Amino acid sequence: MRRRLLALVLALATAAGVSSAPVAEAAPAAKHRITFDKYSLMLDGHRQFLWSGEFHPFRLPSPDLWRDVLQKMKATGYTAVSIYFDWNYHSPAPGVYDFTGVRDMDRVLDLAAEAGLYVIARPGPYINAEVTGGGFPGWLATQQGTARSDAPDYLAAADEWLTAIDRVIARHQYVDGRGSVVLYQIENELAATGVAQQNYITHLYDKVRADRISVPIFHNDRGRNGIWVPPDSGVPGTVPGKVDLYAWDTYPGGTCRPDATPGPPNNAPDWGLYGPGGAKGGASASPNTPGFTAEFGGGWFDYWGSNGTYPCTAVRQGPGYERVFYGTNIANGLTIQNFYMTFGGTSWGWLPAPVVYSSYDYGAAIDEGRQLRPKALTMKELGYFLQAVPPITKQDKADPVTPSSTAVKVYHNVNPDTQTHFYLPVHNPSKATTNDVFTFPVSTPDGAYTVPQAGTLRLDGQDAKHLVANFDLAGQHLVYSTSEIMTSVAGTVLLHGRPGEDGETALRYPREPKVEVLAGNVTSTWDAGRGDLRLNHVHNGLARVRVSGGGRPPVTLLLADSPTADTFWRLGTAAGPVLVRGPALLRTARFHGGVLALTGDTAQAGDLEVWGPGARISWNGRPIRAWQTSSGSLLTRLPGPAAVELPALTGWKQAAGSPESAVAYDDSSWPAATKTDTASTTKPPAGQPVLTADDYGFHTGDVWYRGHSRDPVPAQLSLDYGAGGAGMLQAWLDGHYLGRHVLPSALPAPPTSGTATFAVPAELRGSGDHVLSVMVRNNGHNEDGDVNDAHKEGRGLISTTLTGAAWKIRGGVADPVRGPLNNGGLDGERAGWSLPGYPDGRWAAAQVPAATAAPGTTWYRTNFTLDVPNGHDVSLGLTIGDPATPRSGGHYGALVFVNGWNLGQYLADVGPQHTFVLPNGILDPHGRNTLALAVTGDGGPGNGLETVALTNLGTVRGGVAVRLVDSPRYRPRPGG
Ligand code: IPT
Q1: What's 33-63 look like in SS3?
Q2: Which residue from 128, 185, 220 has its CB within 8 A of the most atoms of ligand 1, so it is best to mutate?
């Protein structure tokens, strides 16, 4: 607690411009150099291929699980992680910044470096990212100046954030030898290019440099439009700005249909060596900097009211897409590629922008429950390949290659220094998914060939292949191969191809080598004239061939079909790299004291085979006995996970939660809504007070209003309100329930505001004291993608036809530990009903599922105890209703609180989400947990809470150690 306070105080001090000695850090001397040319980024002169995945720590509120995700990224071939930092996540009020607990960004940067990943830091100030306000804190909605411009009040606020976050990022810069941050993005998709934005970009650059950020700075262009290219680019049609590198984003793969089935694939764009040139096309928009996609679609987000497209997206943007699209990028010489998202996670609490619901799974390589999808393993093939073939960081176009089939085109590049040749056969056009056999000419310093010489080479379905010629690896010389290189370690090379397809590999030797086929069917042919050993086989499981005595060091060739190749893992150790086959994941590898210490996960019992330094192995801390194989490996077996039993959720208690709806409710302590002026873009009608919640300091979740009037009430009461995606309003007149209105979720542009109209019964209309009680659920502030202050659209009530009313308003209070986005203003939230330890003993026993309900909010609480076996990672979800149908139709929704954390919102009549991921750390896998549901709806039969159950989203033996996240328990308020 003291540390927290200190951090807050220091942040405040700095935000206010007070320099505070303890945090002022002298600039460390540069230890490393980051440079670049048109080919690639270079670290201390070494060319890099940055193969990066997007990950948002704010979408996984359990810091130890950041390590889990980052280790999974490293293990599946990524070399970098791109991180947005969400201003709003850290700043509940002007001048207040919190970097503790789930907001500890030092920790995520430490963990990225620990996992061996470079970091692309993207702190905005604007990020978009489908978060509320596009990352702008709620309080920014009350600013007069135009956001994302040079308006002084906006710049002052942006500087306040940058001061705070840059202090964190500056501690982790690669150049200083203190971390792995290598690139830094200012702004995001700033598509307006007027003088106000030019000044803004310049201001941001200068501010960030003044904050001692010394790595290259770039901006992320919304599409390949040449906006904000380095000043010396000199390309007509581009917009120069103060940046070091040019980068852009694009989501070109093709989409899922509304019925959640994959639509047809698109063609992969040429945005580099093979582009048409100019601002919108080739590499020449920024001729002196590397081809750089700051975001390339790794999936897509999903909307309220959809049919649930994430599983489909994982297929549409699946393995075939990754091979064709990312492969085309590689062939175009783009050496910095970031995939958005690689782990999407959860927009928990009130984090979602109006366009998304709680799950931000994104159809990404790592799913919301932290499980590797098949597409993660294809990323591993691609990422390992790039690391295995360093010459690919410097490619020029080579002579055009004409394959034997017009249904195929072959990209052909060469490294000018090593003369290594790269071929990428794809369909012609690349969206075609036919099954085509072809040959193509290979001509290198090794000679000229028509490839393959025997058997067939084909592209079947959405596919592309990275083929390499004239390349030295593992002490061998590869003339060419129609199999793809996956990886190599000392004395061992792993090649792969699609199951059932032929592979042909030619290696050159000074004299005829000895060939031993250890496993599988492989034929070898010796061409004495050229000195070529040619191996032919069909990719099927794992063939093993030992080649020795040809005047080169011996080698074991592992010839796998791609699914088998996907069971291999490679990590570096101080004593050289290690290659592992078998387990579901290899997390870490360390060689010390003669022991190769491995950690990882198993999803079932099976082989562990290891090619690496030393003869002794430990797995997850335990020494294991292993046997030498003829393949030069050590082999043993690992146990799978134990069975996991989940408790049924029983013992429910319930309590009514909309006391504000009663006539007699005392709102005397509530602020009066009497303002007459607002910065909101939604103004009240002339003569009516400002009701928008942000103006009264309530930025998230549910807001209550009580309007007092003595006027007669119209027969139709209309309430204008703003509430984000699928936002909602409920109203009571004099304690009588008028109804619920939910904003429609029509695609593609669901409304974020609307009008609820209720018929008022005659007996309620007469003059005398009236009270209109209204709850508005604010499902997020708009993003500001078009630089038009869209985040300032009003939230809460805007106006009503009860024109003479005097209004009171009340929203939520920020939870000091769970943060500004955890809570809204439900009475139960304010009273601690969502918290563990709340004394609900006197609440009524409840039946779940509930046959009926009262209108308004009803709280349900229960506790459950988990007893997950030690040394296991069990990913759990909470499922409400029947996941087989996107909408159950009941007119209600529920906020899901686990141990006080708001982990998502269920909307039975909107959909599609039924299962809410409960991250370990928030969840105690070895103890008692509290579940609280705030169920809000029309009441009546059919609108009650459906079944509620725990769901197992994946079990492995392994995982990372997870400490419990601080989850303060209920404490009675002094005097209350
Ligand atoms: C682009 C944004 O940069 C990113 O923040 C996120 O919103 C992403 O797309 C979509 O998930 S926006 C662009 C594709 C118009």
Answers
A1: CEEECCCCEEECCEEECEEEEEECHHHCCCH
A2: 128
Is there an atom of ligand 1 within 6 Å of 129 CB?
Answer: yes
The span from the CA of 777 to the CA of 907, in Å, is: 12
For residue 280, the one-letter residue type is: K
Say whether pTM exceeds 0.90. yes
pLDDT number for residue 469 = 99
Separation CA 825–CA 845 (nearest Å): 25
- Tokens 């009340």 sit at which residue? 810
- Give the residue from 84, 88, 105 showing the smallest Cα distance to 96: 88
Q: pLDDT tens, 166-225?
A: 999 999 999 999 999 999 999 999 999 999 999 999 999 999 999 999 999 999 999 999
Q: Please identify, by atom number, the ligand 1 atom nearest to the C-alpha of residue 341.
A: 11
Length of the chain: 976
> Which of 865, 820, 827 is closest to 90 using CA atoms?
820
Give the pair of three-digit tokens for residue 191.
């598509």
971 burial class (0-12, 13-18, 19+ CB within 10 angstroms)? Answer: exposed
Which whole-number Å values give the CA distances from 680 to 93, 151, 421, 695, 774, in the listed order? 17, 16, 58, 8, 20
54 lines ligand 1 (CB under 6 A): no
Q: 216 CA distance to ligand 1 centroid (A)?
A: 22
How does strand 334-343 pair with strand 50-55? parallel
Q: What is the pLDDT of residues 332-389, one digit of tens each?
A: 999 999 999 999 999 999 999 999 999 999 999 999 999 999 999 999 999 999 999 9
Question: In the block, which residue shows the tokens 């209350």?
Answer: 976
Euclidean distance between CA atoms 71 and 192, whole angstroms: 38
Q: Which two tokens stand for residue 950?
A: 């725990």
Q: Which of 13-17, 36-40, 295-299, 687-691 has the lowest mean pLDDT?
A: 13-17
User: Hey, whose CA ends up nearest to atom 15 of ligand 1?
Assistant: 222
CA distance 501 to 353: 46
Which helix (H) or strand (E) segment holds residue 929: the answer is strand 928-937
**CB of 221 closer than 6 angstroms to any ligand 1 atom:** no
Provide the mean pLDDT of the chain: 95
Secondary structure class of 730 (helix, strand, coil): strand
Query: pLDDT category, 282, cuts 50, 70, 90?
Result: low
Radius of gyration over every alpha carbon of the chain, rounded to an integer in angstroms: 30
Q: Which residue has the higher pLDDT, 149 or 20?
A: 149
